[in-house]
Amino acid sequence: MWNKTTSDTQFYYGIIGHDALLVKQIDTTSIEVHCSSNKLQGLPIDDFIRRYLTLDIEIGTVFRRGFADHYPDVWAIARRYLSVRVMRQDPFETMVTFMCAQGIGMGLIRRQVSMITERYGEELEVNTDFGSLRLHTFPSPSVIATADVNDLARCTNNNRIRAANIIRMARSFESGSMALACVQSGECPLETLRDALCVHSGIGLKIADCIALFGLGRFDAFPIDTHVRQYLQEWFGIEAARRSLTERNYRYLQDEARNILGEEYAGYAGHILFHCWRKEIRKMNTF
DNA sequence: CTCCAGGCAATTG
DNA sequence: CAATTGCATGGA
Question: Which end of chain A is more exposed for a tag (fewer CB within 10 A), N or C?
Fold first, then answer.
């Protein structure tokens, strides 16, 4: 998860494993990129950033050729958001985050994740020009696997069911079954991956697709939430999007979306549209 | 007090 | 099999 300091200087930071990555804007033409290590997850810093921020994805190929011609009105708005990047985030962190994202607002989601890192993560001291920042790593699966339900629930909106689900998922991660699914996630069919994720209580179709897209680099995964459902109806005239997201309708709408956006990058393109919809149409400022 | 917020699972038809 | 109904919680 990324954050911005409240100082007047633009200053962003994120924790990658046990290292900190900091980006500071020093003037109108340049930034400083600081990392607490010269390697991140075994990769030289430049290679890691390239992969983490999916700079290896040619953004011009995310929307298939012909999209602009077929949907000129949508394209007129969406083309301003082609700088949006879907990150390749840590799988476990992504699982916990989206398990916290059910029927709840973005502000509360972020608060839950922050509280989890502060309660269960390891404290990191990062020195900057502004002084030292006290940051926290995201806890490992083993830490969450041994957490007390009531204790974790204090971080999950006091929702004990959610806390219990997260703990059970972490234990599955520990046992190796979830880790194996992650290792194989790159090449297995999307349906197989989704099945492996959905055996866990608290992970349904939508959250499984979010994990695949944001945590496992499966840019073909296309999660459908309330916002996606709305733009599928408003922007693409899909009447079925008026009806509720039953499993059958969810799958049907996914097929429709793939017809419009293509198979390979349906989710990547979909997230750009998601962000665009919230910002431009719903005028939402939360992120 | 009501309604909503990046759904899920159990229960019916 | 597929649709409908509870649900859990904090904040606006």
Answer: C
Give the span between the Cα atoms of A239 and A213, in whole angstroms: 25
Q: What is the mean pLDDT of residues A210-215?
A: 98
- Considering all nucleic acid strands, name the nucleotide whose C1' atom is nearest to the C-alpha of residue A108: C10
State the Cα angle at A206 between A232 and A155, rounded to 5°.
125
Beta strand segments in A74-194, E: 123-128, 131-136
Above pLDDT 70, what percent of chain A? 98
The whole-number Å distance from A57's CA to C10's C1' is 39
Cβ-Cβ contacts under 8 Å for A94 (sequence gap 6 or more): A210, A211, A214, A215, A216
Q: What pTM did the predictor assign? A: 0.95
Residue ranges covered by each domain of chain A: 63-86+219-287
Q: Which nucleotide is nearest to A161 (CA to C1')?
A: C8
DSSP strand E in A57-144: where? 123-128, 131-136
Which positions on chain B have an atom < 7 Å from some protein CB? 4-10
Q: Are A203 and A169 in contact (CB under 8 A)?
A: yes
For residue A36, the 8-state DSSP code is: S
Spatial separation of the C-alpha atoms in residues A1 and A74, rounded to whole Å:
29
